[in-house]
Amino acid sequence: DSGVTQTPKHLITATGQRVTLRCSPRSGDLSVYWYQQSLDQGLQFLIQYYNGEERAKGNILERFSAQQFPDLHSELNLSSLELGDSALYFCASSVAGVNPQETQYFGPGTRLLVL
Amino acid sequence: QKEVEQDPGPLSVPEGAIVSLNCTYSNSAFQYFMWYRQYSRKGPELLMYTYSSGNKEDGRFTAQVDKSSKYISLFIRDSQPSDSATYLCAMSAPSNTGGFKTIFGAGTRLFVKA
């Protein structure tokens, strides 16, 4: 158990809908990362937050947005969902998120299925 | 062309074999190189990281980085059935906002047969 929690574990929804994925980092970790893992694209970095501020951005679509709240939990919002958004979404956390060699601890993931 | 290339396998070896996993990359900005292990239905976990060219050893695992060739490797000695998992290479480069972005390889599925 990494100490990172993600809810829900599974989500089934329809095209065009909007969903919110939630992540609680490990106690004491200030940085949160979101990743998308699909069969054809592999594990892709979406976005990083540090203490409530956006720190780095990867291949995150404009239909997707994220935020980190004062209690350090984070939410990833996916809107106007398409079939291709079906994937496993991981959240990870690290102590500070300043140095790449910091260990990122991954949560168990949320499996999203868009029908 | 992808920034990081990794053969997805699968790679099947007998117990006790030496396993060699590799990745190539194209972006010279990558400074940190990591290997993650992911068991089925679990999140990835960091195995090893290296900075700059050279070798790093941790128990049965050795990570190698050759920046001149843009090539990284992970060797597993005396492989065990419990090593059966997907191994992802990852590389990080600084972003212009103070953080960094990490690019993962596609992952190589490894099966170690008892």
Quick overview of this protein structure:
The complex is a heterodimer of chains A (115) and B (114). With 115 residues, chain A is mainly beta.
Task: Provide an overview of this structure.
The complex is a heterodimer of chains A (115) and B (114). Chain A is mainly beta. Chain A is 0% helix and 52% strand. In chain A, strands 2, 4, 5, 6, 9, 10 and 11 form a seven-stranded mixed sheet that branches. A four-stranded antiparallel sheet of chain A has the order 1-3-8-7, with no helix packed on it. In chain A, a hairpin with a 3-residue loop joins strand 4 and strand 5. Chain B is an all-beta fold and 114 residues long. Helices cover 0% and strands 57% of the residues of chain B. In chain B, the strands form two sheets. In chain B, strands 2, 4, 5, 9, 10 and 11 form a six-stranded mixed sheet that branches. In chain B, strands 1-3-8-7-6 form a five-stranded antiparallel sheet, with no helix packed on it. Chain B is globular and about 45 Å long. Classes of the chains: A mainly beta (115), B mainly beta (114). At the A-B interface, strand 4, strand 5, strand 6 and strand 10 of A face strand 5, strand 9 and strand 10 of B.
